[in-house]
Design a protein that fits this description.
The strands form 5 sheets. A 10-stranded mixed sheet has the order 13-8-1-6-5-4-3-16-17-18, with helices on both faces. The chain has a two-stranded antiparallel ribbon with strand order 2-7. Strands 9-10 form a two-stranded antiparallel sheet. It has a single domain, classed as Creatine Kinase, Chain A, domain 2. Strand 14 and strand 15 form a beta hairpin. It has 15 helices and 18 strands. Helix 1 packs across helix 2 and helix 6 packs across helix 8. The longest helix has 24 residues. The radius of gyration is 22 Å and the shape is globular. The chain is an alpha+beta fold.
């Protein structure tokens, strides 16, 4: 029988080629207030407020962090990889997530999850973690220094911050095929999963003078493929940091996406992308739409046209809209599911739900956007903005409309407009509260989270693919976890039940 972290067992047996789409979301939260209005100080206060309440104090282990490795296998001398800031607040949570300061933002990186709906629940748990941290922090601050958090993607002054997705991909898939398959998806999916924005922040978008954009992030992208994440942002990020067995796995690090307040939008964003990646692994490029001739121009043009009528020229000479591209991609996913069942992404019921929701949102934004205002963030936000503007006869760039835009993303329940517009919920407060404290049982995050919860004083550090124990005698002991599908509840729960101390657990693992 394979051990709990043995990589000899296949990662996935439900599809002949596609491997399990382990996935998760990293969200940088907007932040305002704090002592001296310093965002780094305020972000550190937020992270420490959650950690020091006894929830966790485990350090993050930076071994294996390789932000400068390019998936194309070449060095881009004009690119600058993200800086790994080891000196800032950085910890591991009992649910297997990471909570830390990234540049000038508090960031919650969800644990690895086995399905899009599971990942959506743990993303919502991240919001709850931040709300609790905000309450604790503000309880110790002068009211004049109170901190406010926003789940958004720009500060209105030309600075954008990310909501990054991560997907496990078979290493043997050619990276050029990933680019070819997913560029049309990433530039067009904003029509159903965009968070919406009043006005524009970049020179090229301000020249168009849009009253409203369907995406918060689209205007900040400048390249088709590249390594960077904060400058010259690419539609396809080439960071090759698998956080696992590099011979078997690739982690596709997706930086082009909005932070959604709608749980349905988050689920469709994750589900659609995971299904397309599985289809690519299983069937190759067959059926995927052709690339636009200028993807960067296309993603910006689609963002500034809420009517969805804009078309762009593609490599085969046809002119297609964002809706056309999404329609073709939905059919790629639907044919894949019909042929394979889609088990690499989720169970049959969940895959069916995701396909149905993707289709409903796609047809809804074209035929009658108000029918999907309960699931599509940009539609819900635009309805509020347009109603307020018409009621008070405001100019499109009125500061009050920008304030409404920001307030939509406010994490305070009594101030959040997203909490008032009737967005459908996939998970209730009880399910989200459980996900704050319990790791997903279906990935190695279970082992990491259980160790943090049971043996906090014996863990020196942890990261995605290992846990480092300090049991007092002898050197530190690292438990490697190179396979995201090992270390699950089914493989390790009995070890925790049978071994009440870290020393006993390590002895059992060694045996």
């Amino acid at each position: 029988m394979a051990g709990p972290f043995n990589t000899s067992a296949p990662a996935n047996t439900c599809s002949p080629v596609a491997i399990a789409k382990i996935l998760g979301i990293e969200t940088e939260f907007g932040i305002a207030g704090g002592p001296d209005q310093d965002p780094i100080t305020a972000s550190s206060i937020i992270v420490n407020a959650y950690a020091q309440r006894g929830v966790t104090h485990i350090n993050w282990d930076f071994e294996g962090e390789t932000p400068n490795v390019d998936a194309r296998g070449l060095a881009d001398l004009t690119a600058f990889a993200p800086v790994v800031e080891t000196q800032l607040a950085n910890t591991v949570l009992a649910n297997g997530a990471r909570l830390y300061v990234d540049h000038a933002h508090p960031e919650y990186s969800s644990p690895e999850c086995r399905s899009p709906l599971e990942a959506t629940r743990f993303d919502s748990a991240g919001e709850a973690v931040m709300r609790q941290a905000q309450r604790v922090a503000n309880g110790s601050l002068d009211p004049a220094n109170a901190i406010t958090l926003y789940k958004n993607n720009s500060d209105g002054k030309g600075n954008s911050y990310g909501c990054h997705e991560n997907y496990l991909v078979e290493r043997s898939v050619d990276f050029t095929d990933i680019v070819r398959a997913l560029v049309p998806h990433f530039i067009s999916r904003q029509i159903i999963v965009g968070a919406g924005k009043v006005g524009a922040e970049t020179d090229h978008s301000r020249a168009i003078r849009p009253d409203f954009q369907i995406s918060q992030r689209a205007e900040f992208f400048e390249e088709v493929v590249g390594l960077e994440t904060t400058l010259k942002r690419p539609i396809i990020n080439t960071r090759d940091e698998p956080h696992g067995d590099a011979e078997r796995f690739r982690r596709l690090h997706v930086i082009i996406g909005d932070a959604n307040m709608s749980q349905y939008a988050t689920a469709v964003k994750l589900g659609a992308t995971a299904l397309l990646l599985a289809a690519l692994e299983d069937q190759g490029l067959r059926g995927f739409p052709v690339m636009p001739r200028d993807p960067v121009r296309a993603v910006r043009a689609f963002a500034t046209d809420p009517s969805l009528s804009t078309t762009v020229e593609c490599e085969d000479g046809r002119s297609l809209s964002a809706w056309d591209l999404q329609d073709q991609l939905w059919h790629v996913a639907e044919r894949y599911v019909t042929a394979s069942g889609g088990g690499a992404v989720a169970g049959a019921d969940e895959v069916g739900f995701l396909l149905t929701q993707w289709r409903e949102l796609l047809d809804g934004v074209r035929d009658d956007p108000m029918t999907v205002a309960d699931r599509v963030d940009w539609v819900a936000k635009r309805r509020i903005v347009d109603g307020y503007r018409e009621r008070y006869t405001l100019a499109p760039d009125d500061a009050r409309l920008h304030a409404i835009d920001l307030q939509y993303h406010d994490l305070r329940p009594d101030r959040s407009l997203a909490a008032r517009v009737g967005l459908r919920q996939l998970f209730d407060a009880t399910a989200i509260a459980e996900a704050m404290l319990e790791p997903p049982p279906s990935t190695r995050a279970y082992f990491r989270g259980q160790c943090v919860k049971r043996f906090p004083d014996q863990i020196a550090a942890a990261n995605w693919d290992s846990v480092v124990f300090d049991v007092g005698d002898g050197p530190l002991q690292r438990v490697p976890m190179p396979d995201p599908l090992r270390g699950t509840a089914s493989l390790t729960a009995h070890l925790f039940e049978a071994n009440s101390t870290a020393i006993d657990l390590l002895a059992a693992l060694g045996g």
